[in-house]
């Protein structure tokens, strides 16, 4: 799969087998675990990018990688990118957690089972608390309840099982705060009232974001590959306008803000040149398809609110769960995403760099300071 310096394998007839891979060339990741349980059909990747600030915290993605020739390779690449993003996200959210992410390979509609989730929980538990998991694309609160039966380092559980419930609620709230900060920077007021916002992806997070925008007086356009998701929004809010696809959305004249809320890579060499919006602020992870896209946005005068900053409301919520969940406390912390986003815009202007680069610098400073304190004893 990837260049590996050391491999430790455990394989017995009664237990799943596990490989622990230590990478020196994949963005500084501390550990990558490949998990397979033959009985349940589980194949998964757990990537730990950094534990400098504390145990790695990040969700579990359940995805088929159907268009990839090598789904295992694609899953490792995705987990590495997502885990790195979680390190930066947790650092900028002010959490005492490093970054990690897990990917279960396969179509959740076809292979997800209680047996598979329990096997996955055993793998997470085998890391002894170095990784704390939660929900992500393809996994839900009820799944985390199952995983938690085998692993106490599980968040995003249902309230009746001691958890915080659906983390998409505060994820959407945080994105809205980042969007308010973007409006403050561009138009001088922290509101989307009278603005046109295009939301690409109205699933778990996107449909909550639409609610915030409508309450604020925005005109909202939506698109989603799932017709049922679009229909749910339109049935509740007939004033919302559905467009054919993301390509049509980003080319819409008069679009003020584009909110990518589906999978990553939304900002790339094909989309940035035709994007009509003045700002980009959305819930999707890893929106920048490759290094340099942030400069392309900056060169076009498009304000980019770094994805891992504005979508950190969910991880703030699940982190709070570890201390006995209090929704008001978690929401108050998520509301600070507004101030954090403004501070990034200020730093970017002062340093003459794009906001994504400014955010990276701030996150790296916090992680480096934590590592230095640990080395000093």
Automatic annotation (TrEMBL):
Compartments where located: Cytoplasm
Alphabetized Gene3D superfamilies for the sequence: Leucine Dehydrogenase, chain A, domain 1 (3.40.50.10860), NAD(P)-binding Rossmann-like Domain (3.40.50.720)
SUPFAM superfamilies: Aminoacid dehydrogenase-like, N-terminal domain, NAD(P)-binding Rossmann-fold domains
EC class of the enzyme, as a word: oxidoreductase
Classification via CDD domains: NAD_bind_Leu_Phe_Val_DH (cd01075)
Keywords from the UniProt entry: Branched-chain amino acid catabolism, NAD, Oxidoreductase
InterPro entries: Aminoacid_DH-like_N_sf (IPR046346), Glu/Leu/Phe/Val/Trp_DH (IPR006095), Glu/Leu/Phe/Val/Trp_DH_C (IPR006096), Glu/Leu/Phe/Val/Trp_DH_dimer (IPR006097), Glu/Leu/Phe/Val_DH_AS (IPR033524), Glu/Phe/Leu/Val/Trp_DH_bac/arc (IPR016211), NAD(P)-bd_dom_sf (IPR036291)
Pathway assigned to this chain's UniProt record: Amino-acid degradation; L-valine degradation
Catalytic function, reaction form: L-valine + NAD(+) + H2O = 3-methyl-2-oxobutanoate + NH4(+) + NADH + H(+)
EC number: 1.4.1.23
Domain Glutamate/phenylalanine/leucine/valine/L-tryptophan dehydrogenase C-terminal: 165-374
Family in the record: Belongs to the Glu/Leu/Phe/Val dehydrogenases family.
PANTHER family: LEUCINE DEHYDROGENASE (PTHR42722), VALINE DEHYDROGENASE (PTHR42722:SF1)
Oligomer and partners: Homodimer.
Name under which the protein is recorded: Valine dehydrogenase
Organism in which the protein naturally occurs: Streptomyces albiaxialis
């Amino acid at each position: 799969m990837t260049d590996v310096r050391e491999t430790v394998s455990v394989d017995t007839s009664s237990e799943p087998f596990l490989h622990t891979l230590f990478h020196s060339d994949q963005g500084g990741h501390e550990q990558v675990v490949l998990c397979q349980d033959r009985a349940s059909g589980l194949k998964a990747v757990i990537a730990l990018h950094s534990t400098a600030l504390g145990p790695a915290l990040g969700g579990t993605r359940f995805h088929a990688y159907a268009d990839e020739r090598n789904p295992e390779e694609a899953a490792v690449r995705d987990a590495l990118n997502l885990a790195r993003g979680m390190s930066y996200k947790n650092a900028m959210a002010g959490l005492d957690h490093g970054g990690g992410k897990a990917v279960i390979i396969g179509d959740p509609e076809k292979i997800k089972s209680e047996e598979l989730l329990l096997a996955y929980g055993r793998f997470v538990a085998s890391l002894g608390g170095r990784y704390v998991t939660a929900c992500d694309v393809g996994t839900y609160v009820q799944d985390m309840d199952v995983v938690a039966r085998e692993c106490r380092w599980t968040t995003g559980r249902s309230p009746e099982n001691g958890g915080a419930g659906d983390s998409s609620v505060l994820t959407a709230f945080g994105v809205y705060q980042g969007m308010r900060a973007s409006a403050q920077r561009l138009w001088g007021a922290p509101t989307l009232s009278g603005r046109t916002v295009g939301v690409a992806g109205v699933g778990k997070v996107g449909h909550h974001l639409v609610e915030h925008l409508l309450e604020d007086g925005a005109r909202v356009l939506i698109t989603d590959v799932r017709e049922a998701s679009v229909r749910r929004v339109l049935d509740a809010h007939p004033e919302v306008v559905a467009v054919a696809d993301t390509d049509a959305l980003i080319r819409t004249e008069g679009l003020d803000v584009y909110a990518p809320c589906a999978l990553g890579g939304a900002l790339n060499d094909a989309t940035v040149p035709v994007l009509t919006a003045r700002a980009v602020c959305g819930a999707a992870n890893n929106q920048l398809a490759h290094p340099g896209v942030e400069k392309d946005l900056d060169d076009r005068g498009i304000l980019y609110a770094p994805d891992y900053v504005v979508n950190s409301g969910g991880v703030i919520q699940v982190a709070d769960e570890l201390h006995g969940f209090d929704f008001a406390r978690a929401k108050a912390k998520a509301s600070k995403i507004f101030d954090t986003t403004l501070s990034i815009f200020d730093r970017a202007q002062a340093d003459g760099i794009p906001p994504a680069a400014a955010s990276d610098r701030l996150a790296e400073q916090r992680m480096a300071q934590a590592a230095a304190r640990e080395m000093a004893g």
